[in-house]
Amino acid sequence: MGRKNTMGVRSVTDTLGIERESQDRGSEGMARFLGWFSLGLGAAALAARPRISRLCGVDDSPTAQAVLQAAGVRELGHAAVLLIPRRAGWGAWTRVAGDMIDLATCRQGMQRRRGDRRRRLMYTTWAVAGITAVDLYTAVRATRGRRMKDGNRVHASVTVNRRADEVYRFWHDFENLPRFMYHLQSVRMTGDRRSHWTAKAPAGRSVEWDAEVVDDRPNELISWRSIEGSRVPNSGCVRFMPAAGGRGTEVRVELGYSVPGRMFGAKVAKVFGEHPQQQVCDDLRRFKQVIETGEIAQSDGSPHGTSLKQQVKQRPAQPLAMPRAG
Amino acid sequence: MKANCWIAPNNVAVEEVPDPQILNARDAIVRITSSAICGSDLHLLQGYIPAMRKGDVLGHEFMGEVVELGHGVQDGLRIGDRVVVPFPIACGNCNSCERGLYSLCENSNPNAAIAELAMGHSPAGIFGYSHLMGGYAGGQAQYARVPFADVGALKIEDDLPDEKVLFLSDVLPTGYMAAEMCDITRGDIVAVWGAGPVGQFAAASAYLLGAERVIVIDRFAYRLRMAREKTGAETINYEETDVMDALREMTAGRGPDACIDAVGMEAHHASPALHAYDKGKQAVKSETDRPHALREAVLSCRNGGTISAIGAYGGFIDKFPMGSFMNRSLTMRSGQCHVQRYMRPLLERIRKGEIDPSFIITHTMRLDDTPHGYDIFKNKQEDCVKVVLKP
C-alpha cells in the first residue's frame, strides 16, 4: 500500500495497483466515540439531573435545571447525527456549536455564583473547554478530508468484451475520446505526447487546454495531465487489466482536477458537467457501447443515448418527428 | 403512421405518430405485417410495470418486411426480406450475447442507469416495454425501427404464413425456454401454472423435450380445454379443485418434478380473501407483484425439483416460502427469454411440422381495433387467448 498526495488528494494505492482516495479512519473513529459520549452525557443529564446539577454547582436555580435538561436533549441530538449516518461527516460540527452554547452558559452562571458553587462551575467550564478542543479537532479532521474529496477526483470502471491491446489502442488515440465523452468537443493530437483538448462550457462557450501524456505502458495504463499553466488543470488515468476466464478487459478510469480556489473550482466542475461522478459512469457505458458494437444505443425515449440527464427527462417511446443526421 | 399508444393505466389508444427513422448504422425499418398482444402487455396496460409515459408505443411481438436498412447492417439482410423480430434488443457483441444470454445484452438499454437503480444491474432493452427497458417504441404499429437488425431480425425464406412464425418473436421461445429450464429427464412430470399462450407453449415444449406427463393449471375452462386438446396436457381448474391436493394425488405424493410459473405478477387466488390480501398490498405498494402462482409452485414441487419462473415480474414479492425452497433443495431458474438463441431451431421444428404455434390464435383484428383487443384479452371475454393485429 503506497501513499501519496496527488493534486491535493491524499490517496493510497490498493492491492490491485489502483489509486484511491484514502479514508481517514482515525477521524471516523473519533466521531463515533463522540457520538457515544454525547449519548452518555445526554442520558445522564436527563436521568440523573439532581446529581449532575449538584456536581456542576448549579443546583440552586430552577432556570439552571431547565437549561441542563435542554442540554441533555441537545446531546441526544448530537448522538443521533454522529451515530446514525454511515459517515460521520459534518456531525462533529454540531457538537462544536453545542460546546459554544455550553461555554457561554457556564460564563453566565459563574458571574452570579460565589464560593463552592463557583468553584464547581469553574471545573465544569474547564471540562467543557477540554471537550470543545477534542470536538473541534475531530470536526476539522473529519470534514477536511471530505471537502477535498468532493468533485476533485472521480473514478469508474467497466468490463468490455475486447482484448486489452485493442482497448489500449482505442484509448491511446485521444481523438477517439469525444465519441463517448459528451462534454468534450474535440481532442487533437499535436505531438507525440501532446494533445489539444476542447470541452463544452456553460452558455455555449468552450474551454481549451493542452495536455501531455505522463505515463504510457502499452496494454496496461495511460495517464495524462494538462500542462503547466492550463486554465483548467486536470489529469486522468486509465488502466486496463485482462478479466479472468475470457471475460474481456477491466477498464478503470480516474479523472482529477485541482481546485486552486473555490470559485474556480466551481467553474471547473461545471465544465465537467453537473455531477462529474455520474458523467464518468455514463462516459464509460458509452465507451463500452462504442468499442463493442460500434455505435451508441439510442431509443425513442433516449434519442441521444445513455446519459443520466436523458434518463430523467425521457421522451415518450414513439419515433421522433424531426429527421436526425446520421 | 398509426400506432397503439399507452395513455394512462387501463387506457390505450391508436394514434397518429411520426414514422420511425434510421438512427444508427445497424438499424432497420420494418413495415409490420403482423403483430400481437402479449400477456405482459397487460401488466403494462394496468400500470404494474414502472416507468411508462403517455404516448409510449406498445408491442414487442411483431414481424414484417424490411423497407430501410442502415449502412452498417451485415449478415445478408436486404430490403424486401420478410423478418420476425425478437423482443429483446441485443447487440451480439457483448459478453452476455456471446454466451447466448441475449435478453441480458449489456449495450442495448440506453436507460441502464435507471434499471440499475431498480434492479441492481440492467437487462437488455425491449421493444415497447417501459423506459426501464430502454424506452423503445414497440411494434403495435405500421412501422418499427429495429436496432441491431443484423442480430435481431430472423429472415423467413419460405412461404410459411405469418400466423405460423409470428410467435417466434416471443411466446413460443419463451414457453420453450420455460420447459428447457426444467432439465426434463425420462419420466418427469411437469406442472404449468397459467394456460395463456406461454403456458400452452410451455406444455407443448415439455412434451417435445420428453416429459412423461404435463399438468396445466388455470381457472378458465376454455383455456384448459385448449391445453388438453392442443398440447395433450392434463388440467386442473384451481377454482374447482385444491391444486396442491390434486398434484399430490396425481403424482402419488411425490409432487411434480418441475413447476413452471407462466403467470407472473398478476396471479389470482381461488380464495377471495387471500386474493384480496395480495391485491391490497399491491395497491399500497408494500409489494409490487402478486406471486400466488409462484408460492404454490414452490410448495407443490417435489423435493429437489426445479421451479422455472417464466411469467413476468416487475419488482418485489412478499411471503415467498423460502423455508420450503431451502429445506427441500429446490432450484429456481428464470429470465426473460433469450429469443435469438431459440428462433432458428424452433423455426426448423415449425418447418418439420413438429409444432404449429398458430393454434393459440383466437382473434385477428385490424390495428385500429387494438384497444378492443386489450379489453377482451384482459377480461378473458369471447374465449380470448391470443390477439393478432393486422396493421
Can you give a write-up of this model?
The complex is a heterodimer of chains A (326) and B (391). Chain A has helices at 25-47, 49-56, 62-83, 91-111, 115-149, 164-172, 262-271, 276-293, 308-312, and strands at residues 2-6, 9-13, 19-21, 153-160, 184-189, 194-200, 206-217, 221-226, 235-242, 249-256. Chain A has 326 residues and is an alpha+beta fold. In chain A, the strands form two sheets. A seven-stranded antiparallel beta sheet of chain A has the order 4-10-9-8-7-6-5, with helices on one face. Chain A has a three-stranded antiparallel beta sheet with strand order 1-2-3. In chain A, a hairpin with a 2-residue loop joins strand 1 (2-6) and strand 2 (9-13). The radius of gyration of chain A is 28 Å and the shape is elongated. Residues 1-9, 146-151 and 259-263 of chain A have low confidence and may be disordered. Chain B is an alpha/beta fold and 391 residues long. Chain B has two domains: 2-169 and 359-390, Quinone Oxidoreductase, Chain A, domain 1; 172-334, NAD(P)-binding Rossmann-like Domain (Rossmann fold, 3-Layer(aba) Sandwich). Chain B is 30% helix and 21% strand. Chain B has 14 helices and 18 strands. Chain B has helices at residues 39-45, 95-98, 112-119, 149-152, 162-165, 171-180, 197-208, 221-231, 243-250, 272-283, 292-300, 322-327, 339-351, 370-378, and strands spanning 2-8, 11-16, 28-36, 56-57, 61-69, 82-85, 88-89, 125-126, 143-146, 154-155, 189-193, 213-218, 234-237, 258-261, 306-309, 331-334, 363-366, 387-390. In chain B, strands 3, 5, 6, 9, 10, 17 and 18 form a seven-stranded mixed beta sheet that branches. A six-stranded parallel beta sheet of chain B has the order 13-12-11-14-15-16, with helices on both faces. A three-stranded antiparallel beta sheet of chain B has the order 2-1-4, with helices on one face. In chain B, helix 6 crosses helix 7 (197-208), helix 6 crosses helix 13 and helix 7 (197-208) runs parallel beside helix 8. The termini of chain B are close together. The A-B interface holds A 159, 161, 247-248, 278, 281-282, 285, 288-289, 292-303, 305-306, 308, 310-311, 314-321, 323-324, 326 and B 3, 5, 17-21, 23-26, 51, 53-57, 72, 91-95, 98, 106-114, 125, 128, 131, 134-138, 145, 147-148.
